[in-house]
Input
Amino acid sequence: MPTFDDSDISRLPGLLVVDPDARQRVDLSREMKKHGWQVWVAGNSADAIKIYEELRHRIDIVLVDLLLPGLQGGSLLAEFAELAPHLIRCAMTGEVSPYAVAAFRRMSDTPLFTKPLSVRSLAFTLHEMIAPMSRYSDADEVSRRGGVAVV
Output
């Protein structure tokens, strides 16, 4: 994976992480920045929508914890689909049964990442998803998988 120079941050893809767990948000943000991402974090749906509305031109992907309190993660993903149909929406979860994960994957084309996350794998997969839209991609671009990622 390439190393990214923080001085050219305008070229980095943007990721909005929505997770109710503050430690998870901080850790994931720090690690994703090491893998070439601009990262914004929110702990709830209202903050996530506000951040997106203010920075929509810089955010390429939203990664939402399905167990988000209040407006559940799935509802927030649906709201993002209406706000920004072009936005790549991904889900993450750690506290559901394998059956529920399988059911989610059958019913939705939203990529689902399970916790604990492998940050390196997550970063690589997200880079693949935005490759055609990327402001810095090269001739070996990987085509977008129609909203479906194999994780």
